[in-house]
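FIELD: query
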Amino acid sequence: MPTVTIDGRNGMLAGLIAAIGASARIQLRTGDAPSSGLSGTLLATFTLASTWASTPSGGSFYILNAPLSTTVVAEGTPGHFVLCNSDLSPFVYGTVGVEGADDAAADLLADSLSLFAGREFIISRLYFNTLNSVA
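FIELD: result
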């Protein structure tokens, strides 16, 4: 497998951010992430600001304006998240965990994994990091 420099990683992430475009969405869904499309019950959708991502640096970027909150639409436990464009076309799938308990293992950290319809749900952090870098 080839190794990608940090500048190359930053370029790939900038391309991903540009492809997703303004006003991205994050959906929390039940079950395992699919290889494509959307699956599982939709539990909550976060609508992000028009400028939603930091400038890639060091081969990573993060979601701006966190923590984010929204109202839960269905009760359940999130098994994965989906980062979509404004038309809800999926671009990135990832794992969900509880802040303080799953910091190293989960891509998206939240205040809880117990979602109840009509209640507020908060995302603490969403961080993207690419692999196979060189200094």
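FIELD: remark
DSSP finds one helix and eleven strands in the chain.
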